[in-house]
Amino acid sequence: MPVKIRLSRQGRKKRPFYHIVVADSRAPRDGRFIERIGSYNPLTNPATIELNFDRALDWLQKGAQPTDTCRAILSYKGVMLKKHLLEGVKKGALTPEQAEAKFQDWVSQKEAKIKAKIDSLAKGEAEEMKKRMEAESKVRDARAQEIAKKRTEMAAKEADSQAESTSEETENA
Q1: What is the pLDDT of residues 14-26, one digit of tens each?
Q2: Model confidence pLDDT, tens digit, residues 36-59
Q3: What's the number of CA atoms in the CB half-sphere (13 Å) around residue 19?
Q4: Phi first, then psi: what are they for 10, rounded to 5°?
Q5: Which phi and psi angles does 43 have, rounded to 5°?
Q6: Are the beta carbons of 10 and 38 closer than 8 angstroms?
Q7: pTM of this prediction?
Q8: Which residues does residue 18 pair with via DSSP β-bridges, in sequence order?
């Protein structure tokens, strides 16, 4: 039975959400599966990936073939690297300690990259909000000046009309 690690689409129209599943390759895309090993949400930035690392690695070692997208997701999470290092240990090219050290080094670098991206997105969002607030305050100040100008004009007109009415009253009297 050929086994695949693939995505099963969930979510509503134009709002995809995927389950990462291990399924028989003959089963329908969103149909029967053997095991659900994670989820993938491409709408967040960066994309949210929850993965049962040990189960994914176990299935890969048993011979399950990931689809192209799942391969990219597994590489992103480090499952493919861990599998590669474990094969190196089996062949005698590495010791288990060396393999674990390389993997931990890679994980720390990857986490730093992800954190840097999240920080840059947050910083960009804060700068965008600051620019919006400055633009809004300029518009608000301009409107306040226009209103003040209109009020002074109205007050001047009222004062002139009152002066004219008092002068007419004095002339009539």
Answers
A1: 999 999 999 988 8
A2: 999 999 998 888 999 999 999 999
A3: 15
A4: -130, -175
A5: -80, -20
A6: no
A7: 0.70
A8: 9, 40
